[in-house]
Amino acid sequence: MADEPQNFPPGFPTENPKGDTPPTPQNGEPSAQKPPPPPLPPGVDRVEDAGVFQMLWDCKYCNTKKLLGVTHKFCPNCGSAQDTSARYFPSDEEAIALEDHEYTGADKQCGNCGTPNAAKAEFCTQCGSPLKDAKTVALRSEQVAGAEGFAADSKANAKQDFTQQKSGLPSEPPPAPKSKKWWYIGGGAAAAALVTVISLFFMTRTVDVRVESHSWTKTVKIEAFKPRAESSWCDSKPFDAYGVTQRREVRSYNKVADGETCTTARVDRGDGSFKKEKRCTTKYKDVPVYAQKCYYSVNRWKYERDIQSRGGLSDTPVWPAVNIRTGTCLGCEREGGRSEAFVLHLVEVKKADKKHTCNYDEAKWRSIPDKAVKKIKVRLLGGAKCDTLQ
Ligand SMILES: [Zn+2]
Ligand SMILES: [Zn+2]
Fold this sequence. Notes:
Elements: E1 46-54, E2 56-57, E3 67-68, E4 87-88, E5 108-109, E6 116-117, E7 135-136, E8 143-145, H1 155-166, H2 177-202, E9 204-233, E10 242-268, E11 273-311, E12 333-348, E13 355-360, H3 362-367, E14 373-379, E15 384-385
Antiparallel strand pairs: 1-11, 2-3, 2-4, 5-6, 5-7, 8-10, 9-11, 9-12, 9-14, 10-11, 12-13, 14-15
The structure holds zinc ion (2 copies).
């Protein structure tokens, strides 16, 4: 490495005749005009600034290594312009902090000679070309490390990083696309199967059926008033509960903050510096909330049984005799609704083992005689469409 101090080419503009740079805070008090903090990365609850440091770069002409990204815009040994594609992160031990480094944006790369220039420069420091349409230099991918620390970085890593960026591949390990693919295939197959089942359900064929017999049932639902074993949280126990026992049980869980997990990220700022930040995510634990659970008896009406009468075409349909002990005593009963059904029992003429039952209203049920042969639509998956009987 050369010992003589480096003569930096003039023109790294400090004054700006057109005044189109962003307003610079006066007296080094940037807090007044500080923009709102950038949104937190997903899943991160807190970001802690961990300082700004110089990137390193290796000169490809004289092979001088570990030149400083901000201080050495040109190789102090041979004078070549900084190779921004050779910028790499220093190890924690070698990192040189930047105090009071004003960040104006990522460097612009001169379209004529390739020299990187400060974001606010208007003309190339090397060749004088205007930088109005110059592109900003490519940034290294963000590096994130947990407690294990960062892996060593180098010029070679930088090259690999930029190659991966150009090919459109994420430089981080790619998120398992396999599982997604299988998900799509599985989902597609399931959808196809569902469509098939639905269409089979709606597709029908017409068959000849013979009426084997007629039957009817008349049903009276009976409810009983009896002790029922029930439970509820004691604050919502019914007033007439008896034989109550209590037990402390988990009613819900409260999420309570329980420390945090942190990673450190190195973010290339494109001007030869990088910032380090600690990104922390709050950990939570579930803390059970207990309450008294009550177990008790209550006397309640509930469905108990059916009373039915049945018959065929020649029997007069009548409701069953309902002989129950009414009242409000324990064990007393009451009616809980009535229903009736008039059923035709059909058998397919060509396949005697294929039987169907159809419910109709009493008039239609009576109008179709036993042994009559009718046509009916049957679903491919089985089951007659009773309204298609002719
Ligand atoms: Zn050099
Ligand atoms: Zn230039």
